[in-house]
Amino acid sequence: MKKVMVCGCGAQGSTICRKLDQEPNIEEVICADYNFEAAKAVCRLMKKGTPKKVNAAHLDEIKEAAKGCELLVNVMPLQFGANMLRAAMDLG
Q1: CATH of the domain at 35
Q2: pLDDT in 10s for each residue of the chain, 92 residues
Q3: What residue numbers bound the domain in which 10 lies?
Q4: How far apart are CA 77 and CA 19, in angstroms?
Q5: Count of domains for the chain
Q6: In what order do the strands lie in the sheet with 28-33?
């Protein structure tokens, strides 16, 4: 697995991002959040992190941020689950 996107950079998401950063088979971890400052803060603790501002209420923003990712990790409130699933299916 080369590229992963974690949507949601709160307590759980930031922990997941940092754990993925330690995996040798992952080249890049996209840290996506509506709060861009939170995404950047997590990436400052990482070597392979890339922050992206994503409003998960907008399917097109998720898909744009996740291009080239092999895995999408959803760590957001339930109301965004359908958009994350649709994005994953659309991106294959």
Answers
A1: 3.40.50.720
A2: 799 999 999 999 999 999 999 999 999 999 999 999 999 999 999 999 999 999 999 999 999 999 999 999 999 999 999 999 999 999 98
A3: 3-91
A4: 21
A5: 1
A6: 49-53, 28-33, 3-7, 71-74
